[in-house]
Amino acid sequence: MKKLxxxxxxxxxxxxxxxxxxxxxxxxxxxxCDIDRAKADRYAAEYGVKAYYDHRELCADPDIxxxxxxxxxxxxxxxxxxxxxxxxxxxxxxxxATSLDDIRRIGKAIRExxxxxxxxxxxxxxxxxxxxxxLIRRGMFGEIYYAESDYLKDFQEYHPLFxxxxxxxxxxxxxxxxxxxxxxxxxxxxxxxxxxITKVSCMAAGRAFDxxxxxxxxxMLETEKKHLIRxxxxxxxxxxxxxxxYSFQGTEGCYQAPQGPTDFHKVYIKGICKPGEWKNVYExxxxxxxxxxxxxxxxxxxxxxxxxxxxxxYDSGALMMLDKFADxxxxxxxxxxxxxxxxxxxxxxxxxxxxxxxxxxxxxVPEF
Length: 368
Ligand SMILES: NC(=O)c1ccc[n+]([C@@H]2O[C@H](COP(=O)([O-])OP(=O)(O)OC[C@H]3O[C@@H](n4cnc5c(N)ncnc54)[C@H](O)[C@@H]3O)[C@@H](O)[C@H]2O)c1
Fold this sequence. Notes:
36% of the residues lie in helices and 21% in strands. It has 368 residues and is of the alpha/beta class. The strands form two sheets. Strands 14-13-12-11-7-10-9-8-15 form a nine-stranded mixed β-sheet, with helices on one face. Strands 3-2-1-4-5-6 form a six-stranded parallel β-sheet, with helices on both faces. The longest helix has 19 residues.
């Protein structure tokens, strides 16, 4: 089978992709790149591939078909545009970019190059969500008219360098208002609802900490079908982390993710569940699409029915995401999270800062 030949740029998060590119039956890891030369050399030796120290040199390598761009958020626009202009397909880490102009710049490069762009939103492939997605696609929840999600992290407690963690995280989490790091929160909701955001409004709880970001904020979003989404973000609230809380409400049923370690993935479907009683999502494990069954053993996983917010849970889909990207590029299929979706999700997050700065008024999200 022809394999997609991969180069990975940025060797922090990028190392997850290197390991998966070596594991995947669809891909071959050819080269890695980091501006930190020692890092590039170390991981090139570990993976047995070429080392580059400048993404433009990696993008000029004719042995590479596609680049996984795991650079810091604020350089995505430059590095992704360079890769597309060099004729490479791109799987880009989240978010698309940090300004609407940069998102448009990437859109232009995609159109002009004719290459594939996919955003690496791994939270769309969280295991219980794959079952929920199938239940929703089969119409078992009826029409989804409301959804919600939270991204709650306590950097004060868990990051020894707080508040000076530096880099893109400092700027994105603590350096501006609203919820710019939005795609893990909104991506899985809209991916399943298959809708776009048209309006965002954001309210914030003020600044209890000495930083430009608010202590916490809540976004209300309207979709093109006039459905409603609520998101909450906080990077400083003292509490156990929960970055994978999702809920969908339809005319026939509801899903609610765990809110903590003693909670479970809950499903209610009219006519299937007793009135007023949740079922565990794993009682619906047979609905998991066959294409995903090779990645995890449903029986084993269902035994641990109290699974909640763990790294293993949210990143469990990174390999299937890469396989999907490679399969789509190699076989000319549409990617599951395309530029228009990623741009819509990212823009809603960036514009949430405008909304809160303007007194929480609804702000329109443009098309890309
Ligand atoms: N999907 C997820 O779960 C997840 C988790 C973590 C990070 N991320 C994403 O991955 C990306 C990178 O995050 P990170 O945590 O690895 O950041 P980081 O700042 O910890 O590391 C970035 C790495 O890229 C290198 N680098 C910086 N500029 C470069 C350039 N121009 N060319 C080549 N290398 C460069 C740095 O030397 C460093 O090794 C971000 O988009 C972030 O949102 C996603």
